[in-house]
Amino acid sequence: MSAQSDQLVLDLAHRPALGAEDFLISQSNRAAADIIDRWPDWPQASVLVVAPPRAGKTHLANVWRLKSNAARLEARALRERDVAAASAATAVLVEDLQTGVGDERALFHLLNLVREHKLSMLLTSRVPAGELDVALPDLRSRLRALPVATIAPPDEALLKAVLVKHFLDRQLAVEPHVIGYIALHMERSMEAAATIVAEIDRAAMASHRKVTRTLAAQILGRQATG
Predict the structure, then answer these.
(1) Domain 29-150, CATH class in plain words
(2) What number does CATH give the domain 3-14+154-225?
(3) The pTM is what?
């Protein structure tokens, strides 16, 4: 790979995601990554991460889960029995508050338990706490008071770095101008980056061609009309 392609990756912080793929950092996700780095030195026992779909929220939550050895719960499946089980853990991950909370009193009790027992809890949502459909006033107030770290949709620098990494994982050296073209015209999400690289790789192998701007344009056009 050219020196310019190397620079696309090296310009961003690069760290192992503790068993998952590398988590690349740019301005769009730095605040959320910093809060994970700061654990267990958090301003409160519980922290909320808010991110739009496919911006890397689940990935980052998994980094923290593995780092903290947290018990994982889905908000919509949460029940009172989960509160008792969580008391045996050192940390708790509650994912996807935007899908609804199975038992709102259970989540309220869990927030209290985490604080009283000096545990840690990371909660994730696609929308801010104020936009969640929560009926229980005490829970609504508590969620709105949590420290929040926001992940924005990936910026151009992050998309380029993620594209380079996915191509390297497939042992493909791609010129910077091709990376730039793909990043400019693709959907701005981590999932889309993995998908477009996979489709370009398949097309390149099938046609015995290098990965060029022309090939990338063909695949992007196919996605747009598919």
Answers:
(1) alpha beta
(2) 1.10.8.60
(3) 0.78
